[in-house]
Write a structure and sequence with these properties.
Layout: E1 5-6, H1 25-35, E2 44-45, H2 52-55, H3 61-68, H4 74-80, H5 86-109, E3 111-114, H6 135-145, E4 152-156, H7 163-168, E5 175-182, E6 195-199, H8 205-213, H9 215-223, E7 227-231, H10 249-264, E8 270-273, H11 281-288, H12 290-301
Parallel strand pairs: 1-2, 1-3, 3-8, 4-5, 4-7, 5-6, 7-8
Helix pairs in contact: 1-11, 5-6, 8-10, 10-12
């Protein structure tokens, strides 16, 4: 079977045309994967919304109910940066369900890729930085609660630190968090992951790949996770509006190849989420497509 790709048409909830979050990217990514021959229609699997019992493994009831009912304070909503419209509420619960499904399918097939996810600034009781619920944290807790895994590892290569994920699992030895991020970038107050790799502004392809090239395989050998949740954010790209690093598209593709190869050659299942990226929609969607290209290549190379 081909690598499962997880997607729902409701992921692209309508936003005001002036809003800076590129909400149309999910729909356009689905179209791009089909147009470029990186996916077939029967490869896509639709998720169901996450049930409340899953969310409450991470998020407080007061918070998720207030969000769903449009009762967050102005300050709470401003911190998230997204309006709590009915379509946005629906897509948020769907996207969390999508990451849980991606993780389950990765355990089954060795590799699965989500056309959304990576909302790593969402804390148990509040959202931040366009992140409402922490999908990877929920997926990790669900799989642990169900006994499907004993040890997980989060590899977060979004340009912004996976701060909330690090905080959520600070006292949880069964979830190992690794974040490589631009040191000077958002969030201003960093949390402590199991391993953090703070990077200098302007870092390019070669130095970036050198920084993670031995570290990630060594961490996999040390932690021996049953599953890796990989945030393949494309905002380290040199043209990203919120990035500050200087990777090319080729550098991002080689980064994704490195992570997937390191996991698959150790027979460690890996679930990918797309993370952040902020640019004009055309080039941005091309960048988000890179992890799916790498997944197709690596699945073939590793006989999945």
């Amino acid at each position: 079977m081909r690598v499962p790709f997880i997607y729902h048409p409701a992921y692209s909830a309508p936003l005001p045309s002036s809003h800076r979050f590129p909400m149309a990217k999910f729909r356009m990514l689905h179209q791009l994967l089909l147009a470029q021959g990186l996916a077939q229609n029967d490869q896509f699997v639709q998720p169901l919304p996450a049930p409340r019992r899953w969310l409450e493994l991470v998020h407080g009831q007061r918070y998720h109910k207030a969000f769903a009912r449009g009762e967050l304070s102005h300050q709470e909503q401003r911190r998230i940066g997204l309006p709590a419209t009915t379509p946005l509420v629906q897509r948020t619960w769907l996207a969390v369900g999508g990451t849980v499904l991606t993780a389950r399918l990765a355990l089954e097939h060795g590799l699965a890729c989500h056309l959304a996810g990576g909302t790593h600034h969402a804390y148990p009781d509040h959202g931040s930085g366009f992140c409402i619920f922490n999908d990877c944290a929920v997926a990790a807790r669900v799989l642990l609660a169900e006994g499907r895994v004993q040890q997980l590892m989060v590899i977060d290569l979004d340009v912004h630190q996976g701060d909330a994920t690090a905080a959520i699992f600070a006292e949880e030895p069964r979830v190992f968090t690794f974040s490589a991020h631009c040191q000077s970038n958002f969030p201003l107050r960093k949390q402590t992951s199991n391993v953090d790799l703070p990077l200098d502004d302007g870092l390019g392809d070669d130095d970036y790949l050198l920084a993670i090239g031995d570290l990630i395989p060594n961490l996999l050998d040390q932690v021996k996770p049953d599953l890796v949740l990989y945030n393949a954010g494309v905002d380290p790209h040199r043209n990203d509006r919120l990035g500050k690093l200087c990777l090319s598209s080729t550098g991002l593709l080689n980064r994704d190849r490195l992570v997937l190869d390191a996991c698959l050659r150790r027979s460690i299942p890996v679930a990918t989420v797309i993370g952040g990226g902020y640019d004009d929609l055309g080039p941005l969607v091309q960048r988000h497509g890179l992890v799916f290209r790498a997944a197709k290549e690596q699945a073939r190379l590793h006989g999945l």
